[in-house]
Amino acid sequence: MKITLLGCGTSVGIPALGVIGWGKCNPKNPKNFRQRSSILIENKGKTILVDAGPDVRNQLLNANIMNIDAVLITHGHADHISGLPELRPFYFANKTKIPIYSNDLTLKQLKIQFEYLFKKGKTSPSYYKPPMSLNKIYYGNNTICGFDIKVIKQYHGNSNTLGFIFNNKFAYCTDVVDMPKSNFKYLNNLDLFIIGALREEPHEAHAHFKLAFDWSKKINSKKTILTHLGVQSDYDYVSSICPKNVFPGYDGMSFEL
Asked: Which pLDDT band holds residue 37 (cuts at 50, 70, 90)?
């Protein structure tokens, strides 16, 4: 199983537009260039994408991906869904609808925001066929494209997000500031734990570094990677404060499990 960190940046990316720019991140270090957060999981000829933000086209071109078998959406914030229309060419190639998976709330949002991706409209050309389908996933165990995927609830400020555990080997938990205590028994002793950690200071909707470090220690993860890093989070500085087996992510970082 191969995992690729397509993007590990916060919602505005790094550099951000305008005066924010690189923030505290050193522009001379290419690992500080961060696209919006997304990962790719490949195993036995199947490819799953988690989240499709505004950078997804360039991310998939850079990774030379020829097919997507399913897309998992953690939640409906723009930096995680606004690139969905960019995936249409995968449908054009073989006329097989791309299945999009999430919970009820996010699926309803996607249907409103991108109706034409899932339903033929009155003004659609006669030849047009929707390239994607909406599919509900549930907390607990799910099987998608041969992957065993456990879905867990996460708290993200005033909303909830979905965390995913793949084949009981690694977890992807971004955009999370707290979670039910019951989650930790499922996260225990994983080979890889990818966790969103925005910055050093606490945040109302995102885990900060110390919280991510504490969670990593609590679950005894063999390796922990920080993602969804903010403009305050210079790669070299974050590396210097990480405990053993914890590392900041960077775009294009990959793992074989």
From this structure: very high
pTM of the model: 0.96
| Predicted confidence (pLDDT) per residue in 185-223, tens digit | 999 999 999 999 999 999 999 999 999 999 999 999 999
Residue pointed to by tokens 């609590």: 218
* Cα 165 to Cα 21: distance, rounded to the nearest angstrom: 34
Copy the structure tokens of residue 174: 């971004």
Distance, in Å, from the CA atom of 244 to the CA atom of 240, rounded to the nearest integer, reads: 11
